[in-house]
Amino acid sequence: MKAIRAHQFGPSHVLQLDEVPAPKPGTGEVLVQIKASGVNPADTYVRSGSYALLPTPPYVPGGEGAGVIVELGSGVRGWKTGDRVYVTGTINGPLQGTCAELAVCGASQIQPLPERNSFAQGAAVHVAYATAYRSLFQRAEARPGEWLLVHGASGGVGIACVQLARSHGLRVIGTAGSERGRRLVVAEGAHHVLDHSKANYLDEIKAITEGHG
Questions:
Q1: Is 56 helix (H, G, I), strand (E, B) or coil?
Q2: What CATH number is given for 2-123 in this structure?
Q3: Which residue in 3, 123, 177, 197 has the fewest CB atoms around it within 10 Å?
Q4: Sign of the C-alpha dihedral, residues 54, 59, 61, 63?
Q5: Residue 156: closest CA among 188, 183, 180
Q6: Interatomic CA distance for residues 97 and 109, integer angstroms
Q7: Averaged in consecutive runs of 10 residues, what is the pLDDT profile of the chain (213 residues)?
């Protein structure tokens, strides 16, 4: 199969397209034909060699993706070949394995991908939305009716925060540094959108919330 591999740490040119043996799933594992692979900031940190957890080169980057199950290992229940899934990790290790035509995942590392969602959407859902959900509801314990400020709301996690907060009844203020970013934040559902490059944007927040927060 074809796979992108980094043979050393460094800038993007250390990545190259290689021909490597196709993997086989073991007990409790599934083989996924990858249709789309997500790229997150942490992937670039690993590639550059500046991340806390580093693989041994050569390695296949990519910690999330989406595709179709093409083979089941023994002992796997609840899945069948042909199922559309999004991938939250692979057996290769943290932030490894999805920049390839095939990836082996533990059965707990895949989730169903509805037909209405594209593979590209599935490949982008896990890191951003899991981060947003944990931040909002497991750590901050956000409640309907509360004010939420999403600073830098036009990024992946920021957009996820805006969408999840709106769906849970929070009042959302988002910020972005560009006009294009602010239009995006409006489109994703923020009640108020501010320019965080302006000197007085904190005063605007206090005015909107009438001094709350």
A1: coil
A2: 3.90.180.10
A3: 197
A4: negative
A5: 188
A6: 12
A7: 98 97 98 97 96 96 98 97 97 96 98 98 95 98 97 96 98 97 98 95 94 78
